[in-house]
Amino acid sequence: MASFLTTLLVVAIVATTPLVLAIPLIWIERKVAARIQDRLGPNRVGPWGIIQPIADAIKLIGKEDITPAGTDKVVYNLAPIVAVASVVLMWACIPFAPNLIGVDLEIGVLYIVSVASLGTMAIMMAGWSGNNKYALLGAFRVVAQLVSYEVPLVLSLLIPVLLAGSMGMQDIVTAQQGMWFIFMAPVAALIFFISAQAETGRAPFDLLEAESELVAGFNIEYSGMKFGLFFAGEFVHVLTNGVLIAHLFVGGWWGLGVSAEGGILSNVLGLIYLVIKTTIFYFISLWLRNTLPRVRIDQLMNFNWKFLVPISVANLVITSLLLKISQVAGFAVDLTTNASFTAALPMTLLLLGGNIALILGVIAIYGFNIRRDRVQEEAQAEAIAHAPSH
Known about the structure:
Elements: H1 2-36, H2 52-62, H3 73-90, H4 108-129, H5 133-164, H6 169-174, H7 181-184, H8 186-199, H9 211-214, H10 224-249, H11 264-289, H12 297-329, H13 341-385
Helix pairs in contact: 1-10, 1-11, 2-10, 3-4, 3-10, 4-5, 5-8, 5-12, 8-10, 10-11, 12-13
């Protein structure tokens, strides 16, 4: 009975924490955006405007719940619920500390990828069922953008799985006791961050809800708390991306004074370390959103298929090859059992060298292409200038 009640309590905490976090996250994001753009942000409702998100929630609850004529009512009303559920379900297997985790799945990474795809489906459901041309165009862009950016996202996810030799989230964290994976695979970490930013539809990849061309995009026909659920799901998804990057590449809850066996002190310290690491990546995400301009849809797709995907494939091949070389050379270690700094250092230097070589190769290739295109443009301009006039 005690075990059942403990499990029920953990489930309740994991299910409610993301939804409760949405309220302060809205205030934090609006304040950060104001600072970056030299504005004040919320500053009237409560001290420093901290009650503003609660006022906004009350306003959304009080708005009329409208279901337009001609919509597929079941799909239309189910879409915002699925959008929030996809984010909440990801938290089920995310470890917050050595002994604080909903369920330690052996296929945790695969579970997160699978559940996250429900959010993509929810946006497609919203755009398709809304009986609005702008919403339908937003749904089309979902297929073009979110499904496409899942390719480099999954390819970059395979790198920490290869390094840890496991798809379990706790195993990936404990494998980074001696060395964070971001030092072994900085390219994969960067690709994951960029792809995750695009997956959440945040600037400069916010073409799903481009108000300048689609009015509001896929959610244009939603009002009240239905719109609020999409809003909350997006904010929590950005935070979840920061949590995932912290776990996959910078050690998650692992840090000085934390023991893998757990305990009160280890759990508290682990949670603090995780919050600090997550906050750093969360702030970088907000920084990019409020700094970079929105790209065009053709630039968005070219960047994915002509840049991110080839680099992701090359990075996966190079990492696999270097891991095999380290095994043959005799300095490969099982990071889940022997994760000391000295044991992981030779393999880290080899993998880091491979990443640096990949970066230099990409710079050389794209530099050559840019110079070739410039020479062609100059030749065409010179030919036009010397052409006889008629």
